[in-house]
Amino acid sequence: MARPQPAPALKRSRPESHAFAPAVETAAPAATPAAATRNAATAPSRNGGDAASRNAATATRVEPLVKFSIRVAPDKHRHIKATAAIQGMSIQDLATTAISEYLERLGRPLP
Q1: pTM value surpassing 0.70
Q2: Please, which contacts does 41-45 make with residues 24 or more away whose CB atoms are closer than 8 Å?
Q3: Helix (H) / strand (E) containing 54
Q4: SS3 state of residue 96
């Protein structure tokens, strides 16, 4: 018995107003503010719109970061994540602060 063959794919045409439709020659519009040209569906964090709103620690960081990972139980991870959210911090910021404070208590502060 012959195997069933897949149906040939239908060629879909794009409407004239589609974003990827061939461009029609038109005069270049006048310069508009960058905020007006952003796609409303794109989050500001994806299109660079929030660069001015980043915190100072991120903006002034010069040295490259090194990945540092640990393994914790899921219940501890949930607690750490909730605590960081309540404090308005990321888990990375919470961990960095906790390690810095711990090393200061030991008398060996970070350089």
Answers
A1: no
A2: none
A3: none
A4: helix
